[in-house]
Design goal:
It is a single chain. Helices cover about 50% and strands about 5% of the residues. It is mostly helical. The chain has one domain (about 1-215). Strands 1-2 form a two-stranded antiparallel sheet. Helix 3 packs across helix 6 and helix 5 (about 115-120) runs antiparallel to helix 8. It is globular. The relative contact order is 0.21.
């Protein structure tokens, strides 16, 4: 963790993206062959946020949102976001090759008209922008809140402070209405098995110090 803390936000975001891609390619909704791409898209106009309570009061950073269970590195936030963007019709999140992905489809297709899904469908981006949003939120009680510093979320012009604040309460409503927390908990053993595969095959070979230096 000390090496991660020494890395700049841009470096850790890139590393988190790479790690999520590696571990979640077989269990999340992402299509492995296309997921590493980033779209050069602009953000949509957004109205002023009306739910200021969704903004975290605590000065949290992306470092504080990293999963703290080494046995389970499948991030609930990314699984939730990838599901919403799957239902929104994003092709890069629509893979159905694995049994787990098929279970996701069966369990949640009934929520394709939820307001969070409709909002995600209007956003002119997907790919790594979804990863970025997931690491800028954290669990606060039974919902998610934005971390205090979201500059590394909005710095490329796709997400804006307004669109992030508007989308978050919709995401929280989807999280509650779909009972996603129960689904995630019911798959913990599967996530742990996928984590072990990932650690054995890939994570142990990652040079975190080099990764930080090259993106410095």
């Amino acid at each position: 963790m000390c090496k991660l803390q020494a890395m700049k936000p841009t470096a850790i975001l890139a590393l988190i993206t790479a790690l999520i891609l590696l571990i979640c390619a077989g269990c999340s909704n992402i299509a492995p062959a296309e997921s590493a791409s980033s779209e050069p898209e602009s953000s949509i106009p957004a109205e002023s946020a009306s739910d200021s309570a969704s903004i975290a009061a605590e000065p949290l950073s992306v470092y504080d949102t990293l999963p703290d269970d080494p046995a389970n590195m499948v991030d609930e936030r990314f699984e939730l976001l990838s599901l919403v963007f799957r239902l929104a019709g994003r092709e890069e999140y629509s893979d159905d090759l694995t049994e787990y992905q098929q279970k996701v489809i069966s369990e949640f297709n009934g929520y394709s008209n939820h307001e969070a899904v409709k909002y995600a469908a209007k956003l002119p981006f997907g790919y790594d922008a979804v990863f970025r949003f997931s690491v800028h939120i954290y669990k606060q009680g039974e919902n998610f809140a934005l971390i205090d510093d979201i500059s590394s979320l909005v710095d490329d012009g796709r997400w804006t402070e307004e669109s992030a604040a508007e989308f978050l309460p919709l995401l929280n409503d989807f999280y509650t209405a779909s009972n996603f927390a129960a689904f995630y908990q019911s798959n913990i053993e599967f996530y742990k098995a996928e984590t072990k595969k990932f650690v054995d095959a890939d994570y142990s070979k990652i040079d975190l110090e080099w990764f930080g230096n090259v993106l410095h």
